[in-house]
Amino acid sequence: MQEVLAKAKSIKLLVLDVDGVLTDGKLYFSNTGDEMKAFSTLDGQGIKMLQNSGVTVAIITGRQSELVARRAKNLGINHLIQGREDKLVALDELKQELSIDYDKIAFLGDDLPDLPAIRKVQLGITVANGHSFVAEHADWKTEATGGNGAVREACELIMRAQGTLTKAWEQYL
Predict the structure, then answer these.
(1) How far apart are CA 50 and CA 159, in angstroms?
(2) Which of 4, 69, 71, 72 could form a disulfide with 77 if both were Cys (CB 3.0 to 4.6 A apart)?
(3) Which residue pairs, CB below 8 angstroms and at least 24 apart, start in 61-69?
(4) Fold of the domain built from segment(s) 2-170
């Protein structure tokens, strides 16, 4: 765990996948074709705390969804890349846009399309129910499953490593 915390200390950008990370990975469709997704408020609070601590949060997802755009806007996530299966290429574009090096980036994903990015960044993270092959290559695995607080765990891990977590909690006392 000390090695993970050491890696987390330098993180300035946390990049998130959506399906299986911010959601439970299930795709819900109504009879009329409407898509539905459930997002955890625990994850939302973690994202807000992490951003308030000075770490930027971004989303790179293979699917295109207005729901994801709305959730990102609600959370103040300004860097949203949708419809990109080539997540490492998308991450490289984001890295260039933000002028940030891989040694300052964490990536949280759950499945094979996330693996190249997870392996490239300083801190590669997967969720408890992520694919086992992805877990073999990640630096850390959350205890919570995707859509059920895994993102919150990752946010708090980074904040703990950077010494900002206690301050974030104390404002609620």
Answers:
(1) 7
(2) 72
(3) 61/17, 61/18, 61/19, 62/17, 62/19, 62/87, 62/113, 63/18, 63/19, 65/18, 65/35, 65/37, 67/35, 67/36, 67/37, 68/18, 68/22, 68/37
(4) Rossmann fold (3.40.50)
* Residue 167, phi then psi, degrees to nearest 5: -60, -40
Angle at 151 between CA 150 and CA 155, to 5 degrees: 120
Identify residue 56 by its one-letter amino acid code.
Answer: T
- Pairing type for strands 28-29 and 35-36 reads antiparallel
Mean pLDDT of 146-164: 98
Whole-number Å distance between alpha carbons of 53 and 62: 28
pLDDT tens by residue, 90-118: 999 999 999 999 999 999 999 999 999 99
The domains of the chain are located at 2-170
Q: Which helix (H) or strand (E) holds 14?
A: strand 13-16
Helix, coil or strand: residue 149 = coil
Contact 34, 149 (CB under 8 A): no
